[in-house]
Amino acid sequence: MQKYSPQLQITLASIRSLLASVFDTLRERRERHYELRITNYELRITNYELRITNYELRITNYELRITNYELRIMN
């Protein structure tokens, strides 16, 4: 099995935008807990340089967990 060394490169503005959008959805539906899972694929949003590859991102109950990756926040 090939071992990956995934990276997430993201600007502060784009992480704020992503979290705000998820939190707005959670606020609208407070009676339920929602979980966002992005696993084993690559998501690219151009102009924001958001790359999510071969790792799991969970945003649950206003808690952000990013595991098994390297986080880089660049200007």
Question: What does the model show?
Answer:
The protein is α+β, with helices and mostly antiparallel strands and 75 residues long. Helix content is 23%, strand content 35%. It is built from 1 helix and 7 strands. Strands 2-5-6 form a 3-stranded antiparallel beta sheet, with no helix packed on it. β3 and β4 form a beta hairpin. The chain is globular, with a radius of gyration of 13 Å.
Strand order of the largest sheet: 2-5-6
Number of domains: 1
Uncertain stretches of 5 or more adjacent residues? 1-6, 31-36, 41-50
Q: Could you tell me how far the N terminus lies from the C terminus, measured between alpha carbons in angstroms? A: 35 Å
Mean pLDDT: 54
Tell me the structural class: alpha+beta
Order of helices and strands: EHEEEEEE
Short characterization:
The protein has one helix at 12-28, and strands at residues 7-10, 35-38, 43-45, 50-52, 57-60, 63-66, 70-73.
Main features:
disordered N terminus, alpha+beta, three-stranded antiparallel beta sheet, globular, two-stranded parallel sheet, 75 residues, single chain, 35% strand
